[in-house]
Amino acid sequence: MRKESFERSNFLHSSITKTLFHFSIWFLQFPNSVLMIYMVLGFMETDLHKIIYSKNPLSEEHIQYFIYQVLRGVKYIHSANVIHRDLKPSNLLLNQNCDLKICDLGLARGVDNSSNFELTEYVVTRWYRAPEIMCSCQDYDKRIDVWSIGCILGELLGRTPLFPGENYIDQLNLIFKYLGTPKAEDLTWVTNGKALAYIRDQSFIKGIRWKKIFPKASALSLDFLSQMLVFNPNKRISIEDALAHPFLKQLHNPQLEPTCPKTFDFAFEKSAHTDRGIRRLMYQEVMQWRNLRRR
Description:
It contains eleven helices and seven strands.
């Protein structure tokens, strides 16, 4: 990652977490120092990627609790008009009590932001990318995060990546392998001509039943998975409906699933195109954090 991109990512993460103060989001602080600027984050013992690929058993209750916390945190993020854009197991931190915090908001963007962001190989992890991004559609929205959470759920159930594509084409082909080729009515949202032509040129694939892929998983967990991993984003379950799904019945509590009282303003993007601009914004951000601490 370029130095400018790294600095922009740090600034964006610090600025967004100041707005998104929530128990399922990793919180950033700047301790007072005269000569140096330190970015301090709360300690978390591990992350979900390490848990998935450990030898520790994972019960359905574990999976429910992990996914519930992710959905609860993402609901809060979305309510601030922010899309995370890089949800994956390694960006979900855990402590010994299985409390989960979402981290790495440095690649987030606004729901209503019309700026075109460069979606390179290192920006959004391919295995968790929604079809909208794979098809190079620039007008995607917060439903891309729902797809990523579905991929994470599948990885928890099988303890292996669900769509480990080696490139864009392979990624799409893996999606078709499991979900089947989409019907014409489910392609109306595809605005990229080349992507649309490629999909239409594919031979019919029926898809594979989730029960065959995850024979030990409960019917409720597979129904939940099938509603998140929908090729057509317009038919994909919303975060709010996902929280209310029967799979999470024992955990769902609207009083513990708040929304953000204010939205995040991405207007700073106009000044974040140079090293100097980003550093100036970062300095202003640190000063604002310290002023908040003094109140």
